Automatic annotation (TrEMBL):
PANTHER family: PURINE NUCLEOSIDE PERMEASE C285.05-RELATED (PTHR38643). Coiled coil: none annotated. Belongs to the NUP family. GO terms for biological process: nucleoside metabolic process; transmembrane transport. Keywords: Transport. Nucleoside permease that transports adenosine and guanosine. GO terms for cellular component: endoplasmic reticulum. One of its GO terms (molecular function) is catalytic activity. This is Purine nucleoside permease. It comes from Lentinus brumalis. It comes from the Eukaryota.
Length: 352
């Protein structure tokens, strides 16, 4: 184990959430993340170290799963005296559930919006009013599909779409893997034209992500949270993936940006599809949750690296020409409070 003697200034900091996502980045011919192994106070007891190349240009950490672990680890990173993160690109690269309306198992998705769909009242479906389409009601509201009247500030984060488009072009240079078992399973979605993307081969997709510590599955819950994603962004977001950490990670990075420690316009969120968020026609929600666990998960982890490697190396190789100065966003970037200035294009004041 080594400790940094001077502040490390990464060009790219890769953020994983658990072991399999993290180890995908080790042992590469392109760069060696294990040349510096730095214990950072406040990191997860399971993942106490950041790992960096010898020159510090590329670093990596594992937050631990769920919102609490993500927020705790990222806070420890942002406020650590070990790192200078003012010009760092943060690359959140993990797996997640995916809607067959937008992609399939193994697809690599890049988000502009991250929506905290868990900020709602929850009524058991057996006790909700008969005319409600779901038992989820936004905080402070009185029925589903009313914009939340109580704002926590973490409902929506909008990322730099100009940067997103640049890294999508990088990721599209990769050939994503597929798997015969996955091919056979996803063919079940071909009978419904709405699910055509779910029946197709893995690809790189521009679509948005929903955060909740609750791992939901099934058509009814997927539709409910898809509607929440649309509602909270005034129709701008395209619901696509599900995960447990991104709004927590982004909350920390935004507060770090307010403090001048990071640049929020340099954040990238990529999620690869590990499981479908809803069943195919004729299948039960329970069967969907527990089907294809091994093959879909393994494929999604493999494609993290395949889609993500061109992004990391592209930023480093293009540093002097493009990325040192940053990719200037042509639209609003930030949270629902406009903490970084500007005018949000989502939220109650933007309701259409």
């Amino acid at each position: 184990m080594t400790h940094a003697a001077t502040r490390i200034t990464p060009k790219v900091f890769i953020v994983s959430m658990f072991t399999a996502e993290g180890t995908a980045w080790y042992g590469l011919p392109e760069f060696n993340l294990l040349e510096q192994n730095i214990t950072v106070p406040g990191f997860s007891p399971l993942f106490p170290q950041a790992h960096c190349t010898l020159d510090g240009s590329i670093c990596h950490l594992v937050t631990g799963e769920g919102e609490i672990n993500a927020a705790s680890t990222m806070t420890a990173l942002v406020y650590s005296p070990i790192f200078n993160l003012t010009q760092t690109y943060f690359f959140v690269a993990g797996v997640g559930g995916i809607s067959p309306k937008r992609g399939t198992l193994g697809s690599a998705t890049f988000a502009r919006f991250a929506v905290h769909v868990g900020l709602q009242y929850e009524f058991d479906a057996r006790e909700k009013p008969a005319d409600w389409p779901t038992g989820y009601v936004p905080q402070g509201s009185y029925a589903p599909n009313q914009y939340p009247l109580t704002l926590y500030g973490t409902e929506v984060y909008e990322l730099n779409d100009d940067l997103r488009q640049a890294v999508i072009r990088m990721a599209q240079t990769a050939t994503l893997l597929d798997d015969p078992l996955v091919q056979e399973y996803r063919a079940n979605y071909a009978s419904n034209p709405t699910f055509a993307p779910g029946a197709a081969s893995p690809s790189v997709v521009a679509c948005d992500t929903a955060t909740s510590d609750t791992f939901w599955t099934g058509a009814l819950l997927a539709e409910a949270f898809e509607n929440t994603t649309t509602l909270f962004t005034n129709g701008s977001a395209v619901y696509c993936t599900t995960q447990q950490e991104d709004n927590a990670t982004l909350a920390v990075l935004l507060r770090g940006a307010v403090s001048g420690l990071v640049d929020f316009a340099r954040v990238i969120v990529m999620r690869t599809g590990s499981n479908f968020d809803r069943q195919y026609d004729g299948q039960t929600a329970v069967a969907n949750r527990f089907a294809m666990l091994s093959a879909g998960f393994a494929l999604s982890v493999q494609n993290i690296l395949l889609a993500g490697l061109p992004v990391v190396t592209g930023i480093v190789s293009g540093w002097d020409a493009t990325f040192r100065e940053g990719v200037k966003p042509s639209h609003y970037v930030g949270d629902i409070y406009a903490s970084l200035g500007g005018t949000p294009d989502f939220g109650p004041m933007s309701a259409k």
